[in-house]
Amino acid sequence: MLRRFTHPIASLVVVLAGCSGAYAAKAARRAVSDDRAAAVAISRYRAQYGLGPVQVDAGLTRAAAYAARANAAAGSLSHDAGGSFQARMAMTGLARGLKAENLGAGTATFDQTLAMWQASSGHNANLLLPQARRIGIAHADAPGSSYGRFWALVVAQ
């Protein structure tokens, strides 16, 4: 889902009020174990289309971890799980600029998830955003759900 935000949102205070430091630390531990390898894989894919590389961004990784955990807790995929996409992006300190989010579930590895996103026109468009320079990638496990593992990728300028 691609969105451009030009002004901060007032509800950020409400969203941040529910986020403790312990929760943020726990969410960060759910980040993909080798997020730099994920950035390399995405960069190689982008290079095939003449696009520049992406680098891992800690704030975007926290936002992705939060989204992955919220979707895992819900047991389903929604760009509004854990708050609106706009509110979650504001949590990174980046209320402005181009940002996009890919969600996925049911795949065990990043490579499987990347292939799934490449096969989906909307998700693929986010991978190939010409302005993209930074990413955050994370997954969260929900063993009792029908999906098992939930993924989130946040792409930004």
What is the structural class? alpha+beta
The CATH architecture comes to 3-Layer(aba) Sandwich
Radius of gyration: 14 Å
- CATH topology tier name: Pathogenesis-related Protein p14a
Number of strands: 5
- H and E string: EHHHEHHEHHEE
**Could you tell me the strand content as a percent range?**
15-25%
Count structural domains: 1
Poorly predicted runs of 5 or more residues = 1-30
Strand arrangement in the largest pleated sheet: 1-3-5-4-2
Report the total helices.
Answer: 7
End-to-end span in angstroms?
15 Å
| Biggest sheet descriptor | 5 strands, mixed
Mean pLDDT over the residues:
81
Tell me, what's the shape? Answer: globular
Annotated CATH homologous superfamily: CAP
The CATH top-level class label: Alpha Beta
| Overall helicity | 40-55%
Describe the structure.
Keywords: Signal. This is SCP domain-containing protein. There is one protein chain. With about 160 residues, this protein is of the alpha+beta class. The chain has a single domain (about 35-155), classed as CAP (Pathogenesis-related Protein p14a, 3-Layer(aba) Sandwich), CATH 3.40.33.10. Helices cover about 45% and strands about 20% of the residues. It has 7 helices and 5 strands. It has helices at about 10-15, 20-30, 35-45, 60-75, 85-90, 110-120, 120-125; strands spanning about 1-5, 55, 95-105, 135-140, 150-155. A 5-stranded mixed beta sheet has the order 1-3-5-4-2, sandwiched between helices. Strand 4 (about 135-140) and strand 5 form a beta hairpin. Helix 2 packs across helix 4. The chain is globular, with a radius of gyration of 14 Å. Mean pLDDT is about 80; it is low at about 1-30.
